[in-house]
Every structure is written in C-alpha cells, then in structure tokens.
Design goal:
The protein has helices at residues 12-22, 39-46, 69-84, 104-111, 129-145, 179-193, 207-211, 224-238, 250-264, 269-274, 278-284, 302-316, 331-341, 351-361, 370-379, 404-430, 486-492, 497-514, 521-532; strands at 26-31, 55-57, 88-93, 117-119, 166-170, 196-201, 218-221, 295-300, 319-325, 345-347, 365-368, 383-385, 470-474, 479-484, 518-519. The chain is of the alpha/beta class. The chain has 4 domains: 12-130 and 142-147, Nitrogenase molybdenum iron protein domain (Rossmann fold); 160-278, Nitrogenase molybdenum iron protein domain (Rossmann fold, 3-Layer(aba) Sandwich); 279-417, Nitrogenase molybdenum iron protein domain (Rossmann fold); 483-531, Proto-chlorophyllide reductase 57 kD subunit B (Helicase, Ruva Protein, domain 3, Orthogonal Bundle). Helix 15 (370-379) links the parallel strand 11 and strand 12.
Length: 533
C-alpha cells in the first residue's frame, strides 16, 4: 500500500456525492463508518454551498461491528426518506463500509420505499472519484429515463416544423471546476443559435428531469469524464447524437458552434460572425510577444489538459514541454495529444512523480491542479489552475467560466498574469541598485527631498565568498561542493526570479562537471553559453 499526503481524486463514493449534491430532490444513503463522513467539509467549506449536501450516513463505529449493521443501514435509509421526502434515492457503501458486505441495494429494496431507489455499487479499491460520478450518473439515467425509451428498432420521430431544437447539457456536478459558470456560458451560446436547453444534468436537475432526458434532439457532453457513459447509453436507447468538441478556447468554441449547429439544423454563421474574444487580440499584441515560446507544463483531468495544450500552443504561443493526467481512463486521449507536441505523456496519480517531472523540465509556467500550485510554489515557478482538484479560492464569487468566448478571456488573464507579474518583479530586481529604488528613498513624484542613505554592512575581502551560498551538487559519479562568489550571486539576482532557480541549478551542475569549486561571474556566463548550444 502506498501512503500519500495528497490525492488527485477521492474514492468513488465521493463522485456519487458530487452527483447527489448537484441535483435536487435526490438523497444519498451511504453505509459508512465514522471517519468517512466528510461530505459537509467538501461542499460547504471548499465549494461554499449555502446548504448541506443531501447525504445520510449510517456512521457505524467499531463497537457496532459485533451487532446487526444491516439493521443500522435500514434504519438510516427509512429515516432519511421520512425526513427529507426525496423524489428518488441512491444507496451504496463507502470504501470502508463495503468491506462488511451488507448489500445496501438489497436492504433498501426490502424496505419497499415509495420512490425509486437506485443502487450504486462502486468498487472502492479499483476505481476513483470521476469514475464514481460517471457511474452514478449513468445508473440514475438508466433507472429514471429508461422506462421512457422507445421500443427497440424504432426510429426517432422528426421534430415538428417551426419548433426550436433542444439539447441536454450533460456532465456538470457539484465540486466541479467552474461548472456553474460554464453552464451559464454554454446556455447563452446555444440560445444565440436558437437552441433551447431541455435539461442540464446532473447539476440542477431533479429525478423527474432525468426521466425526460430523451425528449431532447441531441446531447452536449460538457465534461466527458462525467457524461460520456450516460451520453453513449442515451445515443443507443433514444437515438440522440452527442457532441465530441469541448468548447474551451477560441478555436474549440468555434468548432463547437459548427458542431451543434449541424446537429440542430441551424445556421452557425451569424453567431460566428458576431463572436469575439479578447484572447485572440491580446495574444497578437505587442505586449504578448514577451509570452512567445514560454515553456509550459500541463497536468490535470484529461479534458482540461487537452484543451489547455491546444490553447497554449495555438492561441497564445507557448511551447508545451510536458503534459499529463491523473485520469487513467483517458490515457489514450492524453497520449494522442502528447504526440502533437512531441512530448512524453505523464499518466499518474502520484504527485511526487509530477513534482519530479516539473523539476526535470524547468518550465516557465505550470498549468495544473491545486497540487501543481503547491509544487510550483516550492520550485519557484508561476502557476495557474486549470482543473480539479481545486481549493476554495478556485470557486470565485464572480463570473469566471472556462468555456465559450468569455471563458477564453478568463483563461488568458489567469495564465498570463503570473508571467507578467514575474516580468514586473524582474524589472524591480534589475533596478534594485538605482538610487530611487533603495529602501527609504523618497518617491520622485513626491518632491525632491534627499534620499535616505542606505549603507550596506561592511564585508571583509577574505569572507566575501564564505558568506554567500554554498551548494552540494551530486552527479552520477561524484559529489562536489560549489561556492558562489559575491559578485556572481549579485549577477544571478538580475535573472528573472521565475527562471533564476533553473539558472542556478544549471550553473552549479556545469561548475561541478568542469571541476570548478567557486562560481564567478565568468562561470555563470560560461554555463549560460554551454546550455544554450
């Protein structure tokens, strides 16, 4: 067993919680021990929801294992129905609760509750959170929409003349990265095309809404990790086509408009002509030439990683030096994307592997999850968050979608600001010896009062080297201690802070390889020339 501090995904019952919490009129009864009851923390603290998640726990303790835990589950399920009166319920066990094999589905069936009860059997030790959300949504869709499916072999009736086309938005859940705002943005875009939204699910839907998913003409798969399974089933049973393009980025949004227009039988040109995004203009502006060929490393869920790599490479002008995902179920898609940028895909759920890869590649920007934000902070590299898992700061009160044309604007700001702030800090570092930038100096726009004289502490010539950084460098065959001379340290500080760590490491490695014990300014520039070849 591998112990870890962080995980990219929780167990699959957390995915089921995300579906239940996003929906209305649905209640989740979870057979779980004390310690697995953390739904409130996830949704009310991180997502800042204004109501508690609709989850009831059996909450058995160690002393209950010698008793009838099955009866404990039946009591909890019956009490949850009587208290909350949901339209439907889902039942299951947490990872620890599954070990006692009480069969929540069979127990709930024996209660004969007067509402649909859907069993979600989630293999806790083989699968994880996104799979659990996808499986839960699929099982709910089958159970609630299935009775309304047309007979096998029948054709889907044509839409009545003059009736606006309709679609379902599939995939948004609670605790999803910007799902709330993405739904709003895509709904507005579809309305501009003359397409109505029949049902948005799971988020915001009721069990009764799921029962009428088959009424729509087609489905929009917003997040394949969550919706692909249900969309494929709806395509088989109701003959509903579904979208393949995820509208993240300007180019992908334009492709998405054409795709949904073809499915709905409407003209996309008026919307395409009126559409605009500042990302396109900004990325071609003079200011953005500073961004060209910035090395970027991307990691997160597969959907956002593939979209981010395309935006970074084609729409902003970054150079993708690495990409990967923790979504093993979408490993094929990541491998195909990696081929486009001639990089090695990283498919792992071990954040230590991700950290090692970031350190190896020395990117100038990291795009990732909250894990990569911590990693980048330790390595001194700018970072922007593009994917769940995220923390409370990534659930902003403001409107901040990732999809559509407005989403492209948000993405440009989110990615570029860390780099531009780095440039500002670099300029401050460059001019730190200017008299106006010394501590205590009077700002020039406030008059001409004499600047406060700042006197550096005296340093004896024979300790100028000893008081600066000493580093031990280990190569494959030797371990060498290198010392930075004071003038070399001063010169190093002129390098932008976001690549300074890389410059320091490369210089120390170069000095070690050529047998130099003290790094001078000449060594620093020799190393720069060496690694530039």
């Amino acid at each position: 067993m591998q112990l870890t501090v962080w995980t990219y995904e929780g167990p699959p019952h957390v995915g089921a919680m995300r579906v239940a919490t996003g929906m209305e009129g649905l209640h989740y009864v979870l057979h779980a021990p004390q310690g697995d009851t953390y739904a409130d923390l996830l949704f009310t603290m991180i997502e800042r929801r204004n109501q508690r998640p609709p989850v009831t726990y059996t909450t058995f303790a160690a002393r209950d294992l010698g008793k009838d835990t099955a009866e404990l589950f039946k009591t909890a399920a019956r009490g949850a129905y009587e208290r909350f009166k949901p339209q439907a319920m889902i039942v299951g066990a947490s990872c620890t609760g599954s070990l006692i094999q009480d069969d929540p589905g069979g127990l709930a069936k024996a209660l004969s509750l007067p509402v649909p009860v859907v069993t979600v059997d989630l293999p806790a030790y083989q699968r994880k959170e996104n799979w659990g959300a996808a499986e839960t949504f699929y099982q709910l869709t089958r159970a609630l929409a299935g009775p309304n499916a047309p007979p096998p072999g029948s054709q889907r009736p044509a839409r009545p003349a003059g009736q606006r086309p309709t679609c379902n938005l599939l995939g948004p859940t609670a605790l999803g990265f910007r799902h709330r705002d993405d739904v709003r943005e895509i709904t507005m875009l579809l309305n501009q095309l003359g397409i109505d939204v029949n049902v948005t699910a799971p988020m915001g839907a009721t069990p009764a809404d799921l029962a009428r998913l088959g009424d729509a003409d087609f489905n929009v798969v917003m997040y394949p990790e969550i919706a692909s399974l249900a969309a494929s089933w709806l395509a088989r049973m109701f003959h509903q086509p579904f979208t393949k393009v995820v509208p993240i980025g300007v180019s992908a949004t334009r492709e998405f408009i054409k795709e949904v227009a073809a499915l709905a039988g409407v003209d996309p040109e008026p919307v395409l002509k009126s559409a605009s995004s500042r990302l396109t203009w900004y990325s071609h502006s003079v200011d953005s030439t500073y961004l060209t060929n910035k090395r970027v490393f991307i990691f997160g869920d597969a959907t956002h990683v593939v979209a981010a790599a395309r935006i970074a490479s084609q729409e902003i002008g970054f150079k993708v030096v690495g990409l990967g995902t923790y979504s093993r179920e979408f490993g094929r898609e990541i491998r195909e994307a990696a081929k486009l940028y001639d990089v090695e895909p990283l498919i792992t759920d071990d954040y230590l592997e991700v950290e090692a890869k970031v350190a190896e590649l020395h990117p100038e920007l990291v795009l990732g999850t909250q894990m990569e934000r911590h990693i980048a902070k330790r390595l001194g590299v700018p970072c922007a968050v593009i994917s769940a898992p995220v923390h409370v700061q990534d659930f902003p009160a403001r409107y901040a979608p990732q999809m559509g044309f407005e989403g492209a604007n948000v993405i440009f700001d989110t990615w570029v600001h860390p780099l531009m702030m780095g440039l500002e800090e670099h300029l401050l570092q460059m001019f730190r010896d200017d008299f106006e930038f010394k501590d205590g100096a009077m700002p020039s726009h406030l008059g001409h009062a004499p600047a406060v004289e700042v006197t550096a502490p005296a340093v004896a010539p024979d300790v100028a080297i000893a008081e600066v950084t000493t580093t031990t460098v280990t190569t494959e065959t030797t371990t060498t201690t290198v010392v930075w001379a004071a003038d070399a340290e001063k010169e190093l500080r002129k390098i932008p802070f976001f690549v300074r760590g890389k410059a320091r490491r490369n210089t120390e490695r170069y000095a070690s390889e050529i047998g130099v014990a003290t790094i001078t300014v000449e060594t620093l520039y020799d190393a720069k020339a060496h690694f530039s070849r």
